[in-house]
Structure formats: structure tokens, C-alpha cells
Protein 1
Amino acid sequence: MTMYLLDTNIWLERLLDQGRSREVEKFLSAVPSERLFITDFSLHSIGVILGRLGCMPAFCSFITDLFIDGSVTVIALDPVQMRRLVRAMEVYRLDFDDAYQYTAAVEHGLALVSFDSDFEGTPGGRLSPGDVDRH
């Protein structure tokens, strides 16, 4: 059974009701939350972004949906894994946040779900939410 790491942009697409929000909604409805993962980096980034937008009630609802009512798992990279992150930055020409997501997915054996095309140059590539029903 495939487990998925959702990149920051997937969560924000839905939270901010952007252009592909329905695609994300369909994905989140189809995949049990026990199979979904978020990095601590994404969680904190979402908090920063929603804070800047004055949307902290949405952040509180997000926390409730994912962790209190749902079973999404938060994962983090330890200091040793940061060396792998730096290597991913160099080899795949990723910026820090993309390398964090990529390394976390590899280290935890997760399929990476993202709208970011930068991951297409990595061995595992990426899935978009609409790809998951075909995966």
C-alpha cells in the first residue's frame, strides 16, 4: 500500500482554495489519512504563510483536521539525514525546501506528491494528486 508525502504546495492549494484545490480535495477524500505524511518543515512553513495572510483560524482548523480528527503523520529529518539533503541539493539542483521534501520521502519510503516540477529530475519523480488514482 503506497504511503504519500504531501509537499507544502499541495496543502496550501487546498487551504487557500487555489486553482487546483478540487484536485487536492478529491485526492484527500480518496486516500485515508493514515497513508498521508507531512514534514515538520511543511507544517511550520504553512503556519508562517497563513500567519502572514492573517489566517491563523485556518491553521488551527488545519491542525485539527490532520492530527486530531485525522491520522496524518509528521516526519522530520535528523542531523545525519541533513547530509543527504545537502547531497540532494547538489546532485538534483534542488533548493533547500525541495531537498528537504525529497530527502524525507526517500528516507521514509514515501511517494512524493507535489505540483513542483523541480522533482521531475529526481529518481522517484513526483506525483500530482490527480496521478494517485493511476498509481
Protein 2
Amino acid sequence: MSELSVNHLLGIKYLQETDIELIFSTADQFKEVINRPIKKVPSLRDITIANLFFENSTRTKLSFELAEKRLSADVINFSASSSSVSKGETLIDTVNNILSMKVDMVVMRHPQPGAAYFLSQNVNSIIVNAGDGAHEHPTQALLDAYSIREKLGSLQGKKIAIVGDILHSRVALSNILCLQKLGAEVRVCGPATLMPKPIETLGISVSYNLQETLEWCDVANMLRVQHERQDLKYFPSIREYARQFGINQKTLESLSKEIVIMHPGPINRGVEISSAVADGDQSIILNQVENGVAIRMAVLYLLAAKKEVEFGQG
């Protein structure tokens, strides 16, 4: 298969396993590009991409922007806080105003679940979901799975634990769906108060015991405690959370095997993981960051290629 089965990247649930494999093989090629002395290719030279971020983001926004520039696309950055949205303009009006400037693709992060899907139904542009509320974050899941594959060779039969604030996490849902499509076994672990109630219906196991989960898994993906989404107290204190669900060097040394440590970032050092673990030999956190650019290059390139075929451009 040489093209994606979808016209937008709205969520992992819309992708087939063949789509994910195509994104990975394309990312392999782009990873070679970004490690060359000249890191740019002219692949999207005639494409204009608008980055619409209605929520604060540093790493995802930078990663997309770098991916776009590595592909030689023209880039427009839009921040909602300084826009007409703050004056009451609707999402569709905002985006249609931007598209009237002949923008080909929109990368959007939005606090409302389903916003990217809604946009794809109402405007004539390729939409890439860079995170919609606590719903999905497909490129993060793709880069996480790609990083595990790079480290362990395959995801088939691997045991992956996702630990922490599952309730508020868009990374968790996208990761679960992506890992399952690639044949991995998934377990979530965290405080009962941060566990969505029907999560077992996704075909995963649930644990409230970190030590037992770490003994079980090959990879532990440690999620950030999202203070900004928590309007209630979900656990007694940060110190208590770190004691029960954080990983330090002592935790790793107590295990009967070596496991791989991941984190989607930004890290609350000393809460989810200690500095020694974040910077240690078992961590692939910086690989995740590097792979994020290659994965996003692959997604943008493959979606743009599809548009060229459909609309006869190029």
C-alpha cells in the first residue's frame, strides 16, 4: 500500500494497521533526512499549512512547525488567545477566513473533544488533529509506538503499561488504540480516581499497583499529572502521588528485569519520574522527541500526496 486510506488524521481509531505501517516506513526515510547536514527536502514546497492552536502547547507546536519547515512548506502560526476567537468568532468562521488565504492543510489543537472531526466535515481542507480535549492525540501515539518499535524491534506481543492520569489524557486513548492495532498488550495503571470507569471495555487490563505493573510490562509510558485539567482533588498530595505512582532509580533496581521508560512530556521531575530515571539508560524520552519530527513529516507528506492525487495538483 502506497497511500493512506484516510484524507485527514483525526484519530487513531480511523486508521488501519496498513496506514500505521506506511507512516512508519515513510518516517524511517525522513529520519535519515533530519540526520543529514542539510535537513530540508522540497516535498511540500507548494503547500501552505496553518497551525491553529486553541490551547497552549510548546513541544507539539514546535515539532509540527519543524516538520513543516523540513518539508519546505509555507507555514502560518495562529494563536487563539490573540485572535478574533477571543472576540466571539466561531471556529468555522475563523478557519474559513484562514482558508480563503489559500491554505492547504490545517494542524489544530483544540480543548473540545471532536473539534478536528467537526472541522473536517465543515471546511474544505486537510485536517490534522494535534490534540482535541481529553480525546485523542494521534501523532503522539504514532511517535510513541514508532519509538517502541525502534527500541524493541516489534510491538507484536509486547506488554505496554500506561501509567498515571488516564482520565484527563488524550495520549492514553490514542496510545491504547495504536498499540492494540500493532499487536501489543496494554495495561493502564494509576489512582482509581484518575481511571475512567468504562476503560476495560477497550480490551485492556487495569491495575492500581505500580510495582506489580512494572514487573509485568516491557515498556512503561509515564503520563504527566495534568494539574491544569483537574478542577478537583484526585489524590491527597503530589508527594503521595509520587510515592505510589512515581518511578525512581530504586524502583527500577528492584525489578527482576530491565524495562523501557517513556514519557510524552513535559515531565514533572520528581513526580512521575525522577531526574535519574528520565536521563538514565532505560529512558527513550529524547528519542521520542526526535521521532516526533519524523512521524509528523511522514503524516503531512502522505496526506499532501493524497490531496495532490485527488485534486489533480502538483
Protein 3
Amino acid sequence: MSRARSGAIAPQTVSNDDGADAASAVLRRHAEEQFAEELEALAKDDSRPRPPRWRLSPWAVTTYLLGGTLADGTPITPKYIGNRRLMEVAVATLATDRALLLLGVPGTAKSWVSEHIAAAIASDSTMLVQGTAGTSEEAIRYGWNYALLLAEGPSAKALVPSPMMRAMKEGKIARVEELTRIPADVQDTLITILSEKTLPIPELNGEVQAAKGFNLIATANNRDRGVNELSSALKRRFNTVVLPTPETAEEEVEIVRLRVESMGRALAIPSEPPGLEEIRRVVTVFRELRDGQTSDGKVKVKQPTGTMSTAEAISVVNQGLSLAAHFGDGVMRSADMASGLIGAVVKDPVQDRVVWLEYLETVVKERDGWKDLYRACREVV
């Protein structure tokens, strides 16, 4: 999935059989393609010092993440809404010999931030290893073309480089998603890479040394089942930045609004963008169940077993838009949101159902202007 590029990063336009551009047919473009114009404008405007092989300076990378307006009036859309200092620390870490670990509960934009940082620094966010319980050492180090291996024995031609190896050779940013989902013995494969900046290839009596510009961004959370703790030796190779849940309701509403609009365009959902009040109601439900109390602090509520993350709130609104578009009049209403809300809250059919019903009766039913949401949710439960 690697695309080694420099300079402008306009998406490729290979035509398919129907004559349409392949770029426009892709469901989700990589960050460096989707925001190519912004990255190009930042590169032209950026006169600050850049680390070796970085396309942008650390200041420009942070501006790309948080948004702003350039001297020529070009607007940069925010990719992350939150504490600026956290992003500055994350970007500055990658300019050192330390790797970056983005830590937080599910749905706090760890993968999103990881992708956009890699896109801004290296114009390539695809050097990715997806962590799962089945991730093997070969996914991090390298594999073999077994037909060539059997025919010719170990050789450079038979070796299949991993995204990590390619990032080391090309001086780019590698990404490891869900690091704590990877078995502990496989995690420790990273120790030599991060400490020595070298990947040994004992079968060829050789090694790959990391080129300048190489570094690693890993993401992890400690709320999932099946988490494998990092060894102390591996933890020491990372600088950890904890991404919190949005601090205020308005901040979370803006995050949901921006992502829903972006995804709605990408998915071509033929419905009107949801009003802020509808988004605010979804966000309020999520925040109150996440915090264990109503927004005014007057009523305590039980918390469900799920994380009630911002990412799930975005999914609820997107599902509501889809229902409104394809089975309604194109305007999202309470009935369109109800099933998504219940699906997000009720992960445990016994425990969470009790939590949700109690919240409906004690909070939603009694809140002014929420009777329509109460009725819609009661019909689905």
C-alpha cells in the first residue's frame, strides 16, 4: 500500500472500465490525497526549519492538524479539535529519536491523528501495520515469497518487505495500530528497531538501517478486552501522549458535525446535513452516560459497559442520516436516531438494557423538548 511521492501529492487518476476516475470512486481516500491542496499550500507558505526528509516543519504540521488561515488567505481545516499542546508534543516527539505512542480510550481519534501526522510529515500515511491478536513477527519485520524461497533459497529477491521495513528504507513514518492487541512477544520485535534503528535479516547475514526521517507512531488503548500490556523495555522507547475525550460538549458537537459532513460527502448520502440541535442531543446522551450524571449535575445515572466514544456518536448520526435518506424524507429525526442510540448503548443485552431504560425514564422523558426522542426510543426498545 505504499506510494513513494515527493512534491505535490495530487491523487492518481487511473480510469476504470466505466471511464470514471479511480480516485473519485474510492470510498475513503488517504489523508495525503484528500487534503492535498492544503498540504501543498502549507509547504509553499512554510519557511521554518524542517527535520530531515520532512515535507513540512513541525509548526506547519501542527497547523495542518489544528487548522488556521495562511498568509495568502488559504483556510486549513481542523483535523483535530482539542488541546494544542498535546499536538505540539506529539509532533515534536517525532523530530527526535523517540517513537510516539498515542494512548486513550476507544474513539478519541488516535488513528485519525496518527494518519494525518504521517500524511503531513511524509506525504504517505500508508506504511501501516494493523495490530490484532493474530499479528505475527513477519507483519512487522518481513516475510518471504515462498515459491522463490523454495526454488532459490534465501535471497533479497525472495524477501517481502513489511510496511515497517519500507518506512525504514525510505525515511518515512511507520504506523502500528492497536499495539496492545498484538501478542507481547511480537510487540518486542519493535525494541531493536526503535533502539538501534536497525532491522536485522539473519537469513541474508544483513540488516536494514533506518534512513533519516524514519520514526514510528503507535496507537493503543487499555479499555479493550484482550489487551496485552507493553513490556517496560518497549515502553521506554516511546514518548506517550494521552488523547482525552473532548473537554466540553460544544467541542464534541463540533467534532461530530465536521466528521459527519465529511463522511456524508464521501458516502454520497442524499440527505440534508443534520442540525446542530440533533447532533447536540446525541452528544448529550453520550456524555451523560459516559460521565454518570446529567449535564447539570443534578441527576446521577448508571453507566453502560461500553465506552460511549465520540466515534460511536458519529456513527449514530451517520446511521440516522442514512435511514432518513433512504427510508424517509431526507431530514433526520428522532426516529432515525433511536435505533442507533440503542445499538451504541446496549452492548450487554441484560446489564446495559437496564441502564438505558432507567436513563430514558428518569432523564429523557423529563427533559423539555425531548419527548419525541423518548417516544422513538421506547418504540424500538
Protein 4
Amino acid sequence: MTYKELDNPVWNALKEHQSSLCRNIGDFKFYPKDYCVFGAFTETNDPEGIKIYAQETDSFFIVGKRPPIPKEVILETELVCLQMVHPGPIDSDYREKIIPLDESHREDIFKLVQIAFPAYFKKKTADLGQYYGIYKDGQLVSMSGERMQLNNYIEISGVMTHPDFRGQGLATQVIKKTTEEVLNKKKIPFLHTAIDNHNAIKIYESLGYETRRTMSFWKFSYSKSIT
């Protein structure tokens, strides 16, 4: 299988399953900033869409090819990730109790985010898909969930564990659970992880994920000093 739609996952997610969230700005498609600050394009020589979106956000990412850059916008960095897919199946043997997270868990989610991965979540990030978590003594200590959703694919994202509970294999458990549930929906799980995040890559490979390609996340911000 070539997984061709994953060559431009943001564009295709916003064209397909998550089209109701799509903001079309010029030649670009963007998620609303309260959900996820990602955008994408297919072909363009016009950077106007980037300029408009940049004025609305502190920073954001264009995923895939490097876009044309307007003078008002700063390219901060290129984050190179591995894009990995899971062809299935996956075993369903768990040693931890893992529960689906819903609106009643939202405060706990944000508490964990602020400790484990500050500024990762936006106000409505958890509305993009289903999240799963592990509680210890009434505290959410590990979770993962779904972010980009195409017709045939769902991205695994939001993987984090409280620093006091790392090294216990909790992340492996929640990733496996999220992967299993995506496969149960007859969708193909995929994910992105920094190319130098060797520990995470080992975990994903141990669960059956396979590297498909590299994917660039171009981080931009608006230059308020340019008028």
C-alpha cells in the first residue's frame, strides 16, 4: 500500500473527514486556531494565505512542502519528523486500566498538558478525536488520542506522561490502546515524531509502526516589526 493521501495529511484531512473545520485562506487550508495551528497547500506562488493566518496566531506550522514566504512572516524552524503507519493488527493485552476521556476529563487533560507538555494543547484540540488515559490515585498521568482525520486514516497524537510516572511503560500502553481503537474503526493509524526522538521511535516500532517517509513541519510567526 502506498498511503498516498498521507503525502499531504493536513490538506486531505481538511478536504475529507474534517472538512467542516477547514478554513480556506487563499491557496491554503488551515485548522481553526482553537483546534490546531496547522495548514497546508498543494501548489501556489501566492503567500497571502500565510500572511493572513499569521496575523491571527502567535505561531503555526505548514505541514509538507515549504511554502512561499511573505515578507511579513518569519520562518522560525523546520521540524523534520518521521511519518509512521501501522498496518495492523495489534494485540489487545493491557496491564493498565485505560479509559476513554470525555468532556468530564477536560480539566484533568489540561493539568497534564501544563505539566508534561506546556502549550501543546489549544482550547479545542481534544475535540479533534477520541483520547484515552490512565489514572493513578485519581490523577490523569498518561494519555494519547486522535488529531488529523482523513476518510481512511487517523493520526495518533497528544502522547504524554506525567514526569513522575515516566519509565513505567504507560505511554506504550495508551499508544497501543489508541492504535487498537483506530484499527477497530477500520482506519489506518499514522503518526509523526521528530526524527531525532529515538526513544519514541523505538516505542512505535515495538508496537508495529513502520516508517513511511519524512515530513517537514515549517514553523512560522508574524513579524510585528515589519509594517
